[in-house]
Design goal:
Structural class: mainly alpha
Radius of gyration: 14 Å
Oligomer: single chain
Strand content: under 5%
Number of helices: 5
Shape: globular
Number of strands: 0
Distance between the termini: 36 Å
Helix content: over 70%
Order of helices and strands: HHHHH
Mean pLDDT: 86
Length: 117
Amino acid sequence: MSWMKSELLKKDSKKAYSGDQKETVEAIDKLKGFALQLIHLDANAENELDIKALIISIGDIARVSAEMKMEQVCSVSGCVLVDIALEAASQKREPVAIKALSIVGSLAMEFAGKGWV
């Protein structure tokens, strides 16, 4: 991932944890955009790690958002992870698809265990 994209991701990640729903959804959308771009690049180790880091970040944002009672953000996060999984599967990037679906499943189990669903 380029240095510029890395810096933009850091900035957006800070917005994601601000507690502002609009900024958080915008940050998630940017993370999704980066992940989808990477899915279409060569399937090398660096790209795989970057995509998986983005997926994990989106899952972490969902967890924090749930604790802040931002249900809309949790919903958006789940939908974005499913979108990433579907795109990865369509591009034959099964490990990425599995990671995204794994995070969705973990979030569902965690939220159900806390009575949030």
